[in-house]
Amino acid sequence: MKKGYFGDFGGQFIPELLMPPLIELEEAMQTILPSEEFQTRFIQMLKENVGRPSALTYCRHMSEDLGLDLWLKREDLNHSGAHKINNTLGQGLLAKMMGKEVLLAETGAGMHGVATTVAAAMLDMKAVIYMGAEDVVRQAPNVNRMRLMGAEIVAVESGTRTLKDAINEAMRRWLADQENTHYCFGTAAGPHPFPELVREFQQVISKEARQQFMDRTDGALPDVVVACVGGGSNAIGMFHHFVPDASVKLIGVEAAGTGEPGCDNSAPLNLGSSGVLHGMKTKLLQTDAGQIMPSHSVAPGLDYPGVGPEHAHLQDIGRAQYVTINDNQALNAFVTLSRREGIIPALESSHAVAYAIENKDALKGQSVLVNLSGRGDKDLGILDRIL
Amino acid sequence: MNHMHMKINDATQHGKVGLIPFLPAGFPNREQFWKELEALDKAGAAVIEIGMPFSDPVADGPVVEKASLRSLADGIDLNWIFTELKARKGQFNAALLLMGYLNPVYQYGLEAFGADCEAAGISGLILADIPHEESQFVKDAIEPHGVALVPLIGLNTSRERMQLYAENASGFCYFVSVLGTTGQQKALPDRIKEKLAEAKAVFDIPIALGFGIENPAQLARFDGLMDAAVFGSALISHIESGKSSAEFMQPWA
């Protein structure tokens, strides 16, 4: 397989001027990442600062309600509220050991921005966060958190004023500031080596979850593993150690938006086609002429017209199945999990929970392990306006 | 020798710099665009770069992005560009080049794209998001049609990478003057001289300097180190302010 590719997907479709920092990053992955110094510090940070291992929770009430065994991998319990911190601490530490001083990031829901800011503060670096102007309004609590922890926030007014435009602007900034700046890419997407790098830092989710599940079930594996998919980092982290387990069905849940025919959505694996954006060949929401279409989801973290290339490959080879959940189904799951289990999930993760609710008949009697990628405190403003 | 190479040679043999103006297709509107192209041609452009608008132009600065998105909103696409160019084939003295991003070309179909470039009289292509590592499948589709994939290099391109680009390169080499996006800037860094000299030693095709170029005075320092100059943002701003392309080209004559 060609370097940086997952089957037909992946690659390095970026301006030549970004190749030197990508090559530098790839070299750091080969030399610094496996070093004892990096591994010792990273594992210590995950334990002391993130709170790993995160819990595995059996949902007693919803399991009874739905007629299945519902388990949650609790990335929402991580410091800063989501799986994102696994990646930003990893990339932050790597960048620090590469001699970089600035962590540059883009963010949609704000969770990656918060996590990058936390990493920068912990590592005595500067955080510069690009965020679509639309998302700055939608996710105000996270913007306030980032400012409090010292990040420079850049509200992006171009294009659709959401995540994809924040990525465009962050890439432009990286072009100009590459010597001292590391682009802390937020998901398992973008040009090689980011999809592999982010997966490396997120695979801890399935490593822990697989062992925890077996410890609780006398060595049995779950029947189904579910995760929401925007760019796809929590899902690739949740899938990775289950990929070799043929008996485990892997389900990625994309956002269908309002769910009406022809509506804006965030489901490129279901409703898109192959193309090239943000440095990678993957599945995209696009017109016949190759222009990128606006995406939509009630969950800002899923609001992206592309997806990480490894997911496009897992779909291509039939190892994972990708389905859609619409805004209302996700909102129903948000409320249901909150009321029945006392756990307020992020709107993003609510899409994964909704899969279990909407498919309860087909899943009857099965064990369903859902990655609860983040917590929903950040979404209460959106919910106030909708519910 | 590629048509773009010949046209730049024509200029340098007369002691001039090859002029390479850039305009997004359909800018400032469908009809005016062709008039501007004719004016640029008459004013002595060696190569004219025609921008293929894309929704997410990550290497472009604000002026080019805004102009391209305006063309996109007007419905400008590759079908329009090729149809109009085919109708005007042979009417331009300058060599013609298309510049943009891979995805619209990929969706059009690379084979069809190569064939249509030939039919429309296009002799060069710049794709801002294609580094050497991903370039072969594009070259395979366009080179049989006489279309050169123009390499983009810059201040952070090592000699080793320049050599990768120089192998079998034709047309010209585009040297990006800044680490950043397109757009005007007051001072070009001195480091450019050293890297231009390195590029001159590696490439046996003309070297064009671009990004941040707005007037001929900026280029005096680089005499003998470059053969052509690319200008886009300054020209776009000039046209937007209601002035003519011919007027913009006068100081360069």
| Number of E-type strands of chain B | 9
The stretches of 5 or more residues of chain A where confidence is low (pLDDT under 50) are: none
**Total beta strand runs of chain A:** 14
**Which strands sit side by side, in order, in the main sheet of chain B?**
5-4-3-2-1-9-8-7-6
Query: Which sheet architecture does the biggest sheet of chain A show?
Result: 6 strands, mixed
Mean pLDDT of chain A: 96
Terminal Cα span of chain A: 48 Å
**How much helix, percentage-wise, in residues of chain A?**
40-55%
Shape of chain A: globular
Per DSSP, the total helix count of chain B is 11
Shape of chain B: globular
- Interface with most residues: A-B, 31 and 41 residues
Give the structural class of chain B.
alpha/beta
Radius of gyration of chain B: 17 Å
Description:
- The complex is a heterodimer of chains A (387) and B (253).
- Helices cover 43% and strands 19% of the residues of chain A.
- With 387 residues, chain A is α/β, with parallel strands linked by helices.
- In chain A, strands 3-4-14-9-10-13 form a 6-stranded mixed sheet, with helices on both faces. A 4-stranded antiparallel sheet of chain A has the order 1-2-12-11. Chain A has a 4-stranded parallel sheet with strand order 7-6-5-8, sandwiched between helices.
- In chain A, α9 packs across α11 (233-239).
- The radius of gyration of chain A is 19 Å and the shape is globular.
- The model of chain A has no long low-confidence stretch (mean pLDDT 96).
- With 253 residues, chain B is α/β, with parallel strands linked by helices.
- Chain B has helices spanning 3-13, 30-42, 62-73, 78-87, 102-108, 110-120, 136-142, 159-166, 191-202, 233-240, 245-249; strands at residues 18-24, 47-51, 95-100, 122-127, 148-149, 152-154, 173-176, 207-210, 228-231.
- Chain A binds chain B through residues 11-20, 158-159, 164, 168, 171-172, 175-176, 178, 275-279, 284, 286, 288-292, and chain B through 54-59, 65, 72, 77-79, 101-108, 128-134, 151-158, 161, 165, 176, 178-181.
